[in-house]
Amino acid sequence: MVTLETIVAFTKRRGFVYPTSEIYGGIANSYDYGPYGAELMKNIRDLWWKTFIQQRPNMVGLDSQIIQHPTTWVASGHVGSFSDPLVEDKKTHKRYRADHLIDAWVKGYMSTTRVDPSKSDPVLDVAINKIAKATVESMDMKEMAEFIKLCKITSPDGNELTEPKPFNLLFETELGTVAGEKSKVYLRGETAQGIFANFKQITDSCRVKLPFGVGQIGKSFRNEITQGQFVFRTFELEQAEIEYFFDPEHSDWHELLEAWKTDMMRFVTNTLGIHAENLRWRRHTDKERTHYSKETFDLDYHFPFGWKELWGLAYRTDFDLMAHMHHSKKSLEYVDSATGRKFVPHVIEPAVGVNRLFLMALVDAYVQEDLGEGKSRTLLRLKPSLAPVKVAVFPLQKDERLRTLAQSIYRDLAQDVVTEFDDAGNIGKMYRRQDEIGTPLCVTVDYSSLEEKTVTVRDRDTMKQERIPIDALHQYVLQVIRT
Q: What is the 3-state secondary structure (H, E, C) of the chain?
């Protein structure tokens, strides 16, 4: 598998991802999406929205504000319990997530003892076996503190650590123009609460009947401790979340969960074209699962830094709507039009980070291909519908007649698909550059094009070329990129 270092260097070099404010030294855990990264992110968003909102008859969309009434986050539990286990290096005062340090230490210990069993410690083995039966994430603060002490885990700099303590992830800010009259608000920690807060307005204004879902894509903000996993974990992230409301008396939540698992896996493998062997489902343990969830699954992807959560799926019961009813003193009950029965719906939540889908797509598609005779090429085997650029158009030579025809073809294709025009002159280098950014098709205009009205079309994956009539080119391109 490709290394994370390779992906980071590649995305910067080819205009997918840049460090934020790099000219000023950058900001940890913060990245900007370059021209090709912005296109790839848009394609992922559009495919998710089309698949889960537009093509499903019982779904509607929403776009709620990033800053909401602060009581929203009290009701949701974020103010009181939205935290990570933080430890601090007693000398450098650098902060780390305790569960991540424990996980890294366990992996290092297991690796060492496999090579040299004599370095195994029976006491540590017992402690590690307890973790193996659950997960590091399911440990509470006390258990983490005891494990760190028992195993003498230090910071990456080799220094003693403080005991773990909760670190709230919400970003605070203030609204108001006069000092002393400002009110504290929060940047949202997730997009879901905007859906719950608007539940009553949606049911009153739209013709929705249970079961139905509300989805939205938007920015969320988390004051993350962990650094060093590129766009996988950042302060500012983009989420695509759905709250699927249903009547627990008429719908079996087990069946709904299984249906969503099928749809989520189909989207990742079929729509995004990800290799199935790099995906797995993992059920949360009872201890790991959040208190409001009756069942939780993670769809994990095998990233360069290990198996990590890509997409979460949780049965949240009626916790959120009930909590907002309690704090707002407003009814969020649903009225069954057939029976008149009033009740608070239950909800299933599929929630995914678009940034993680983005990183997964790059990792899964990145290929270093050996062409033989000491030659190789780098390419992104992205599914055509995901590719930032769909087709590139080149004049073979720096001849004004070829350039004029190539530009005419470019303008025609650009009406419907993202198209690039390049007349650098070296056809081999132009092909290689498009391979690297994942462009499925390259169109070359040569002297035969002037006479025969045909062009050479090259396929990214096979490198095979064929002559296509210019008047059939537009339709040909559209057929290919829709596969």
A: CCCHHHHHHHHHHCCCEEECCHHHCCCCCCEEECHHHHHHHHHHHHHHHHHHHHCCCCEEECCCCCECCCHHHHHHCHHHHCEEEEEEECCCCCEEEHHHHHHHHHHHHHHHHHHCHHHCCHHHHHHHHHHHCCCHHHCCHHHHHHHHHHHCCCCCCCCCECCCEEEECCEEEEECCCCCCCEEEEECCCCHHHHHHCHHHHHHHCCCCCCEEEEEEEEEECCCCCCCCHHHCCCEEEEEEEEEEECCCCCCHHHHHHHHHHHHHHHHHHHCCCCHHHEEEEECCCCCCCCCCCEEEEEEEEECCEEEEEEEEEEEECHHHHHHHHHHCCCCCEECCCCCCEECCEEEEEEEEHHHHHHHHHHHHEEEEEEECCEEEEEECCCCCCCCCCEEEEECCCCHHHHHHHHHHHHHHCCCCCEEECCCCCHHHHHHHHHHHCCCEEEEECHHHHHHCEEEEEECCCCCEEEEEHHHHHHHHHHHHCC
Where are the domains positioned within the chain? 4-66+176-364, 83-168, 389-481
Q: What is the pLDDT of residues 90-113, one digit of tens each?
A: 888 888 888 888 888 888 888 788
282-304 residue pLDDT tens: 999 887 888 788 999 999 999 99
One of 2.60.290.11, 3.40.50.700, 3.40.50.800, 2.60.120.40 is the CATH number of 389-481, namely 3.40.50.800
- Mean pLDDT over 199-221 rounds to 95
Domain 4-66+176-364: CATH superfamily is Bira Bifunctional Protein; Domain 2 (3.30.930.10)
- How does the average pLDDT of the chain come out, rounded? 91
